[in-house]
Design goal:
With 46 residues, this protein is an all-alpha fold. The chain contains 1 helix and no strands. The relative contact order is 0.10.
């Protein structure tokens, strides 16, 4: 029973992380470039 509770909590945490990453991606942010083109070497095309 405890294993299922831990699994459910971990799945919830992973889902929240993925949701945040998708939301950031839709807003033009990514892990490589935080959306601040003055600091990413000019690879931003916005």
């Amino acid at each position: 029973m405890g294993t299922f509770i831990v699994l459910a909590v971990l799945c919830g945490v992973v889902a929240l992380i993925v949701r945040g990453m998708v939301r950031d991606r839709k807003n033009g942010k990514s892990i490589q470039c935080g959306g601040d083109c003055s600091h990413c070497g000019g690879s931003c095309h916005s």
